[in-house]
Design goal:
alpha+beta; 20 strands; 37% strand; globular
Amino acid sequence: MKKLLPLLSVLLLISCVQEDIQQPVGSDFEVLNIERNQTDILIYYNLDILYTGKVDSESLIKKVKEIHQQYSELNMTIWLSKESYKNKMDGVFDSSIDENFIVKSQSSWSKKIDYLEWTQFFGELEDLNGKRAKLVSYKTPLKEKRDSKPYDLKKDEKYGIKDIIDITVTTNYNCRLLPDPDSNQELTRIPENTELVVLESKDVQQGRLLNKWYKVYYGGYTGWTSGWNMKEEPELRVLSYEESMKNYEKKIGKKPTHNPLTGKLPIIDNWLKKNKNNYKTIKYRQWYEPYVINNQWICRVQYDEEIGGIKITSDMLFIVRGGEIINVSEK
C-alpha cells in the first residue's frame, strides 16, 4: 500500500492539472494541441486546432471570434490537415503546410489586441496572405484635424463650404507607400506612429474583404497605403463569394472555366496544343480551380509528358488576364 501512495499522488496531480486546462467549446473544429501557461498575474493559452467547417473568410472570422471570447489571453493557429500540422511540429519540410496552415490569431485583454492574420500561401484564401483582420475595436476612430493646411477642397461660401476639416490617420506599423493599391512598386516606407492627412480614400477588394486605402503625401511622394496599416483600422467588410467574383471579373476578365465534359481549362489546353511539339504525349494528372493573386487569374495544371522517350511530370502556372495568357511558369 505504501508503494502505491506516490503513484496515486502523481495521478492525482496529473488529474488536477488536466482539470485546470480550459478546453474550447464549439463545433467545426478539433483540438490538435493546447497548452496552459501562467505568470504571476496572467494565465494564457497556446491553442492549435483542426478546422472542419466551411473554408471562407467570413466563416473563419466567426469561428475565431467564437473561440477568442472564451479566453482572456490566447495565441491560436488554425489548420486544415492533421498531417501538415504534425509535419510542421516535427520540422519536416512539406509543401502542403503552405496550403493547410490558414490562420494565426491572438487575443489579449492585457495588451488590448484581438486580431487574426491570414497565413495560407496556396488555396482559396491565398490572396489574403499576410493581411490582418481586427476583431475588437480597441482603437480610436478617424480624427478630425482643423489646424492643418487644406489639400483638395476649397473654401467657397457660395457652395456652403465655410470651413475645411482634414481627416488624418496614424500608422500602426512601418508600412509601404505605393503608387496605386494594385502596384507592388514601393515609393518609400512610412515609419510607425506617423500622422498622415488623407487626400482621398477608396475601397479596394482583397480576396473577399473590402479594405479602405488612403491616398497620402509623405517624404516627397504622393501615393496609397492600406487602411489595415493604420491605428484607425477601417470596419471589416466581407463580400459574398458571388460579389467578390463579380468584382474581379469586371476588373481582370472572366474567370477561366473548366470544360464540363473533359475537366480541362480550354484556354490552357489550347496554349499547350500550340506551343508543345510533344502535345500528343501529354496526359493530364490534375486541374486546379483558378484563383486570384495581384489581380490576375492563376491557373494551375499538373501533367505527364514524354521528351526523348523519357517521362517527365510538370506542374505549371498560367497567368491569365483579360482572357489572355500573359505568363507561364513552373510552380
